[in-house]
Amino acid sequence: MMMPLLRSSLLRSVPAAARNARLAPVAALGRRSFGGHGDPRGHLNPDGTRPEAEDIEDYHDPDPIDHTPRLNLVKERGQTFVVSGDPPKSYSQLWPGIAQKNVPYWHRSRLY
Predict the structure, then answer these.
(1) DSSP the chain
(2) Torsion angle of alpha carbons 11, 15, 20, 24, nearest 10°?
(3) If both were cysteines, with which of 18, 49, 82, 93 could 89 make a disulfide (CB 3.0 to 4.6 Å apart)?
(4) Could you give the count of Cα atoms lying within 13 Å of 87 in the half-sphere of its Cβ?
């Protein structure tokens, strides 16, 4: 008694169009062509093989490692250090337009 009542309530909740809908035939799916009008094997060679991927002639991809300066490595006390070739520069050498004379002391302040 409970099962037919449950089945009829489920069927009432489904729209009539969905109850009567049928699946599309499989043959109709094979006829669909998404803009591919023409020879379906036109992308292949006459013998059925794929054409060789074209390489770009005279293409050169530079390696960034080739354009970096050599590292001056120094082994000391079992550790390896990188030593710079030129000494550190002062503020006036780095930023010649900004005067660094008579600069007042300003403590480090948090940015919050």
Answers:
(1) -HHHHHHHHHHHHS-HHHHH--PPPHHHHHT--SS--S-TTTTS-TTSPPPPPPPPTT-----GGGGSPPP-EEEETTEEEE--SSPPPPHHHH-TTS--SSPPP-------
(2) -120
(3) 93
(4) 3
Q: How confident is the model at residue 10 (pLDDT cuts 50, 70, 90)?
A: low
- Look at residue 93 and tell me whether its pLDDT is greater than 80: yes
Tens of pLDDT, residues 30-78: 566 666 678 888 889 999 999 888 777 778 888 988 888 888 999 999 9
